[in-house]
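hey can u check if this looks right to u? its 330 residues, i copy pasted from the old doc so theres a chance i mangled smth
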Amino acid sequence: MRTNTHNHVTRPLLAGALALTLCVPMAACANGTQANSASTADTQTTTATTASSPTAEIADVTSVSYLGPAGTYTEEAAKLFFGNNDELLAQKTVDDAIALVEEGTAAYAVIPQENTLGGPVTDYIDALLASKDARVVGEVVLPIRQTLMGLPGTDLSKVTTVHSHKQGLAQSADWLDKNLPNAERVEAQSTAAAAQEVAEGGDTTSVAIAAPGAADLYHLEVLQENVSQSEANKTRFYVISKQANAQEGYDHAVFVASIAAEELPGLRAKACQDGTELVCVHDRPEGSALGTYRYVIELSRKDGFTNAELKRLEDTGQLEYRGRYSCVEG
């Protein structure tokens, strides 16, 4: 088993503009030691457990797919969670990254989930919901420092086009409004893909907004640091696998519920008992009727989720279990 060496700090409340948010202060990231043995799936216990390390059940060397190309924040999150001795497989889309896990080519995938400024990444939440096999086994919270970059010799006064992922554009909208109000904003598959497009395009009137490391990777010049202009700018990422964590003690769990909006308060009341608290709710169209949604519901529990608590939550008859986990914060 991989020995956890990450430093854990209290996880801040991610105050993104959610389509629907019902949030309470998030619990601290797990600071417990790795458990000595995994609990069996059918073990029932009500004994409080020490929260499991975020990487407690991760093999020393493994394969990880992620939204590429190289130089994305998702790659940075993958390295933070898994370290540098693993096989990282850059993919063009999040759907492709998840597909590698489903077919067994990759053991894990890392996908963006939510940003404090841009809110939930709905396309990627939909990709998670579309996968029947995907289970959340970890979370990474990463500070985001969006950086404006271009070819050497780029003159900001002559820039006509800004390339970035839609989240990068949203997070930098205020800076762009003030400094490049007339520049066209072009969405790319990822921030690193935007940097690559600018580097390969050879046009000094085009710039990219991407992670700082992308400038070195694609031989671009940094034109302005931290154009998101917010120290609170963070993104959290899910770590996905086909197998849910078996050990007890992880302090977060995620479920999916396909219900009418009017049923949500009652479900919350049933779920949040005996120390289990609501972290947040994301709603996505269910597709069969107006007012019915698929909700991604995240819960936290200070003493960790035991098998007995998971069974209690599943016995509501409305919650589909998608994994328990703890987080690493950069």
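Residues 66 and 280 are 24 Å apart (CA to CA).
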